[in-house]
Amino acid sequence: MQRYEYKVIPAPRRGTKSREAKSTEDRFALTLTTLMNDQGREGWEYQRAETLPCDERSGFTKIKTTEQIMLVFRRPLSAAAASLAPGLVAVAPAGPPADGPAMFRPLAAEPATPRLGPAVEPAPGPAPAVGRAE
């Protein structure tokens, strides 16, 4: 089963100025193209754009809910990276899930926490000075 890692970044809010992009739509398209090509060079595959709610403080006691547009990317994990990242979730191929989506299924048993050894005593020497020097 293929494992993936995901990356979520905020969508750009405005286009960058460019000589070849004259209109607002062209500038914005160029900005998105540049962003997606940069992510693609790093191995990230574009999945989708999501609009998600985000609570923000507004004043001292009020909370305002805004919507944030996020871009979702994924890339396959190599076998070595998959063994180093046991907390990542395996995503099932498309099709009806047997017992719920794979992204919400618990993973196999977590690896045991490494044991820590005894603390090392500091080397004997003069005690550090405490307080102000007069």
Task: Provide a descriptive summary of the structure in words.
The chain has two helices and three strands. The protein has helices at 24-41, 79-84, and strands spanning 4-10, 45-58, 62-76. It has a three-stranded antiparallel β-sheet, with helices on one face. The longest helix has 18 residues, at 24-41. The radius of gyration is 25 Å and the shape is extended. Residues 92-105 have low confidence and may be disordered.
Q: Termini distance? A: 70 Å
Helix coverage percent: 10-25%
Strand order of the largest sheet: 1-3-2
Number of helices: 2
Tell me the series of helices and strands, N- to C-terminal: EHEEH
Summarize the model shown.
With 134 residues, this protein is an alpha+beta fold.
Features:
134 residues; alpha+beta; three-stranded antiparallel β-sheet; 2 helices; 18% helix; 27% strand; extended
Summarize the topology.
Blueprint: E1 4-10, H1 24-41, E2 45-58, E3 62-76, H2 79-84
Antiparallel strand pairs: 1-3, 2-3
